[in-house]
Amino acid sequence: MTYEFSWNDEINFSLGNNETLPSDTLDRAKYAKFLTNYLGNLENKNYVLNLDCEWGAGKSYFLKRWYETIKNLHPSVYVDVWKHDFSNDPLLAITTAITTQLGFIANSTDDENFLSGAGAFIKGIAPELVKGITKKVTGIDYENMEFNGDGDKTFSDIAGAATKQLIKQHEEQVKSIEQFKTAIEAKASALIQYNIKDKEYRNPVFIFIDELDRCRPNYAVETLEIIKHLFDIPKIVFIVATDTQELQHAIKVLYGNNFSSASYLNRFFHRRFTLAPPNTENFLISSDIFSNEQLDRISQKAIWPRIENKHESLIFPLSQICQGLNLELRSIIQISERFMATIVNLEDNTPVLSIYLMGLLALYHYNLDAYKLYKTQKANKFANEALTSFYSQIGNITFSCINQNNVKEPIVKGDISIRDIFSEFRDISSMNKTQIAQGCSTSKRNLTSKVNNHRGAVQSDFVKADYFDFLSQFEFSPNYFDLVEMAGHLG
Question: Model pTM?
Fold first, then answer.
């Protein structure tokens, strides 16, 4: 049996509750293939790989598809540690996943050693305050004791007994850890040596740890400590997926801002592998924000240009705006969700120029002062510089607007830039029926005059005339600034 890293079709995730993993629109399969061949070559070594990927880039999808691809060739375990974050016991979460997913055979010696070893460690007693220890070990409540002249000797005897008990418990815990490791290593070897459920496995065992960066900082650190100290076992590789920068911030919550969290994390991992940020356009295509179900909900809205094709009408212009501003995925998702939230809240008879709305949402997110300057036209030095920077980054990006209303003008398709849209359409907010009619008449008259007098009508003239013809079907146009500022509350 060979690896099949063809992720062109959607599949069901075998450990999920009717979870479907879609086709690989972000071209991630090549990374899984590279890493499988690399880690598979380590057969008898222990290895911990940090899969570093920013929030929203599809870490969970990547791990799940990778797990499904190799699970019949390598013993494989997938653990969503965030689901167990409430328990305060990461070891129990990992051992439960191992016993469940690798199909441990009841009553075998190795399995009993594994489970009893894990249980002994889980129940190990951490250092306690002396008064708590004395009560636990001797049954004497130190707080309620009355000492006589020999009080010091009495307390010394109690502390001595407690210390001996702690030493004994520590020795038992160390023994249980070694027993645990031996059992794990034996089981890993047994899985390779024998056919289990008609599977011929090969080394190493793959254990995928997902959602660690979403966990409480102390739980995340405890998970890493357990992987390092309990699972440093030959023939086992861990792939720990994190937004590593976010995890570093979480660790500083525990140890302070001056703590070197990057150096601290490096001691847990042999190597770090970074998933390249996805192409913005492909990322939006793969997201559920613009799913067919969502588009069905807004298909009856009065959006211009009409959503005949979600790629051309929505995804392409939004991806070009976000890419031009070099926005990270978290920001792209936020702007996309604000756009969709705005559209679904519009009444069906409310016309909206989608590209203008996208641009305003992007400007609001990019620099609030620049947005306020554009809205009020009250210039100040810093806001003016920010707005100039905004235009320099995306102002020349050009979009095609299709004539959908059979306007009797010599154009069917017009190209218009973001800068032109911001310039030409700033005053379309809050128009009433009379103002719309005046705008329609003026835009057509200007266009006709330029065409007839050969004064160089530009594409934006045609697009503006076409849009006003569309707008003339409605009683009013929305206040775009109100729409953007309402959506801005969606953090």
Answer: 0.73
